[in-house]
Amino acid sequence: MLWRGIDCAHFGGIQRARALYQRLEEKAYTKPHPNVESLKRALKKAWNEITLGTLIKIVDDFLKRLKACMDAKGGHFE
User: Fold this and answer.
1) pLDDT tens digits, residue range 19-62?
2) Rounded to the nearest 10 degrees, how much is the dihedral formed by the CA atoms of 22, 28, 32, 34?
3) What's the Cα-to-Cα distance from 15 to each of 3, 41, 76, rounded to whole Å?
4) For residues 13 and 61, is the Cβ–Cβ distance under 8 A?
5) Distance from C-alpha of 60 to C-alpha of 62, rounded to nearest angstrom
6) In the chain, what are the domain boundaries?
């Protein structure tokens, strides 16, 4: 899966979410913002560029990791 130049196909769930967060930061902080409203607009614009498919994959990965954590009773899991 490719989103805004980031190849997310090889990332696991956590890494995919981190890549998404990193991309939001990169898009929102390309320039200094004079106020909070300007930053909010930049974040909303970056968020709106994320595809539904990317969000679905991140949620699916999270649910798989949550189930693995529950199955391991909070212990170590891969």
Assistant:
1) 888 888 888 888 899 999 999 999 999 999 888 988 888 888 88
2) -140
3) 14, 26, 17
4) yes
5) 5
6) 2-71
